[in-house]
Amino acid sequence: MRLAVGNIILAAALGLTFFSGCAKKENVIVIWHSLRPVERQVLRAALDEFARRHPGWEFGELFYEPEAARSNYIISALGGSGPALFRGANDNIGPMSELGVIMPLESFFEQATLDSFLTDPLEANTWFRGHLYQIADNIGNHLCLVYNKKLIDKPPQTMSELIEIGKKLTFDRDGDGKPDQYALVWNYIEPFFAVPFIGGFGGWIIDDSLRPTLNTPAVVQAAQLIYDLANVHKIIPLECDYEVANALFKDGLAAMIINGPWSWGTYLDAGIDIGLARIPKIDATGLWPSPAVQPMGYSVNVNLKGEKLRITLELLRYLTTSEMQLRFTRISGALPSRIDAFQSPDVQNNELVRASLEQLMVGRVLPPVTELRWIWDAMRPGYQAIFRGRETPAKAAENMQKLAEKLIRENRG
Amino acid sequence: MASGVGEIKVNRLAYLYTLPALTVLALVVLYPFVYNVVISFSNMNLAHFRDWRLIGFQNYLTVLKDRSFWYFFLKTVLWTALNLIFHVSIGVFLALLLNKDLKGKSFYRTILILPWAMPQYITALTWRGMFNSEYGAIPLLFERWFGISIPWMTTEWGAFTACLITNIWLGFPFMMIIALGGLQSIPDELYEAAEIDGASPWLKFRHITMPLLKPVMAPAVTLGVIWTFNNFNVVWLVSNGGEPSDTTHILVSWVYKTGFTYFRFGYAAAFSMIIFAILLIFSWNFIKRTRAVEAVY
Fold first, then answer.
1. How much is the mean pLDDT over chain B?
2. CB atoms within 10 A of CB A413
3. What number is the average pLDDT over the span B21-50?
4. Distance between CA atoms of B79 and B250, rounded to whole angstroms?
5. DSSP labels, A317-349
6. How far is CA A355 from CA A142, A147, A323, A379, in A?
7. Dihedral of CA A142/A145/A148/A153: which sign?
8. CB–CB contact B243 A67 (8 Å)
């Protein structure tokens, strides 16, 4: 029995060590984000600066791909843990607030502070059902045409021009039957990256009543155009995900890429002389492709309380200051969300920012609603089936609509 | 009942020792299991996470009526069977070779165990890159050697085959090690006696190696079936979450997607209970058979 008592004491000691380890985690504040390495360094430096002012506290950051970031955050926050701050696009706000994993923030910020954020060309901070859930650190998150000035002097203005130039810029150097350089690359198998073209044909993915609008001629025509760029005009690769597209552009094996502000810093850092332009106009409609426009920002984990919540909010204020936003603008051309930062010469005289704004002005703001989540999820399988030769664009559009309606019905029912 | 209480009193110390383990087991296995059963009867999803209510067997009916369930079920059976056939045949074949007096045997053994020693996700992502039709090593080699272009990752069965090849590469070392252990325990005298009787190598394999290897391989195959049936990592990572168009799924990757991408928690819980039932029935039968096989020794 004495042995048993000894073991119980040992177990208790181990338990205490374990729980004291847990207690230590109380002084660690972590941010989950999807920032690319160049911007991540800026964030890391900012956290180090902030840490020096808060001895006894540790500040960490962790990268996840956007989809994984959202899913992992929701799962961990539902389980009572997760990072203190989550940084992402505002289309996460609907699902996250409905699941109750992020905290309403309006009571923590004075009106004067909130008034210092942009409301034009779009509302920077995200309100949902009467509560503030996200403080923006930049706006946009929109796709642009990025071109390598070494490979192309002037970006094409229309689709027909793109196809014409594209045939010259796509070539097989070594004669092995495979192109060694492509005119254009992008992650076109992901619906988010197809959305500008839907807008270019006069359509959109959601209406004002939050119903999906996927079974439309605009969606069919947009998908057909992208399919033709790969299979008929052969100016984009037959198989191209985000990583392949990025690698080709960074290695100088693609003249143009369609990508968002999160990537521009990486290209600049790699020494590529890039220019930004609008995605070429659709000849048939005379419309510019309209990328989805969203604010990017920070949300606070609902599980925080006490001192940790206080320090987290302080960090949130620090990371969204004008000075901090301008640091990101300088390295990547990101559009700041504070009015004074947005109006500063650093932003207004920045060539990339001006071009990015040009594209933003023809983009469309996405509502931060949960229905959009189901629409994205419903689009992926149907849309990808087109490029796998399994469905025609018309049939795929019909399937996407049906699945989106089913997901909304099943979840809302 | 009285004897039960008496037994607890007598073995109090033993029960005390097992109590922490039982408590942890209850917390990490029993509680989630019971919770899963409860939510499988509920409408819990993204829109009804806090205000969920019980809806009876609706989720189970939805799963069983869903064509994708039966399709992925058949695919999972095919996936499991093909993997096991290749794992066992390659594993036993290599074990037979390594069981001979080869020069540099330990070197070969180390090399052959490597796929097993590497983290699955690194292997899976590396193979995914190698199957890329534009720049992957495998399509390029196929084109150079055989002049054929296989759309590995862009077609349903191409992606399935890519996942299969990856998992065969990952899984055969386990069977090889188990078979090698089994082979080393077979007494040489049996082979010597067969040799004297003039038995051919095939007859020796058929009548000595196979029956004596069976008791070792049967539990390994049971484990292999359960692992492969539930092998989420390889399918998910190689096919990039079920691409193309959510066709490259096995049951477990599909249930993950419905649960943690679509957040249909009630549906996913019911789905996982059905997977659990399938595996329970299989394992129960297989374990019973395995016990029967043990009588060979």
1. 88
2. 10
3. 91
4. 8
5. HHHTSHHHHHHHHHHH-PEESBHHHHHSHHHHT
6. 12, 12, 22, 29
7. negative
8. no
- Compute the C-alpha angle A202/A208/A213, nearest 5°: 50
Mark out the alpha helices in A207-319 (DSSP H runs). 217-231, 242-250, 261-269, 306-319
Q: Are B64 and B286 in contact (CB under 8 A)?
A: no
Residues B46, A71: C-beta atoms closer than 8 Å: no
| Distance from C-alpha of A197 to C-alpha of A280, rounded to nearest angstrom | 10
> Quick check: helix, strand or coil at residue B116?
helix
Rounded to whole angstroms, the Cα distance separating A380 from A116 reads 38
User: What is the value of ipTM here, to two decimals?
Assistant: 0.71
- Look up residue B208 and give its DSSP letter: I
Q: What is the interface size between A and B, counted as CB pairs within 8 Å?
A: 81
Among A63-67, B2-6, B79-83, B116-120, the range of highest mean pLDDT: B79-83
Residue B265 vs residues A231, A377, B96: alpha-carbon distances, Å:
39, 16, 47
**Burial state string for A3-12 with b = 16 or more CB within 10 A and e = fewer than 16:** eeeeeeeeee
In which region does residue A391 sit, left (phi positive, over 0), alpha (psi from -120 to 50) or beta (all else)? beta
Q: pLDDT band for position A193 (50/70/90)?
A: very high
d(CA B124, CA A253): 26
Q: Among A377-381, A407-411, B4-8, which stretch is predicted with the lowest mean pLDDT? A: B4-8
Nearest to A71 among B151, B261, B267 (CB): B261
Q: Tell me, rounded to whole angstroms, the distance of Cα B256 from its chain centroid.
A: 16
Beta-carbon neighbour count of residue B66 at 10 Å? 15
Locate tokens 């205490």: which residue? A16
Contacts of residue A141, defined as CB under 8 A and 6 or more positions apart, other chains included, come to A89, A260, A261, A262, A292, A293, A294, A295, A296
With beta carbons under 8 A apart, name residues in chain B contacting A190: none
Strands A254-259 and A144-148: antiparallel
Write down the residue that tokens 């640091």 correspond to.
A327
Label the pairing between strands A85-89 and A28-33. Answer: parallel
CA distance B124 to chain A (A): 16
Q: Provide the β-strand partners of residue A294.
A: A140
Q: Is A95 in CB contact (< 8 Å) with chain B?
A: yes
Where do we find the tokens 């607030």?
Answer: A97
Q: Phi-psi category of A177—alpha, beta or left, where left has phi over 0 and alpha has psi -120 to 50?
A: left
The neighbouring-strand residues paired with A275 are: A147
DSSP string of B227-284, one letter each residue: HHHT-HHHHHHHTTTTTTTT-S--HHHHHHHHHHTS--HHHHHHHHHHHHHHHHHHHH
Q: Which two tokens stand for residue B155?
A: 């077609």
The shortest C-alpha distance from B17 to chain A (Å) reads: 7
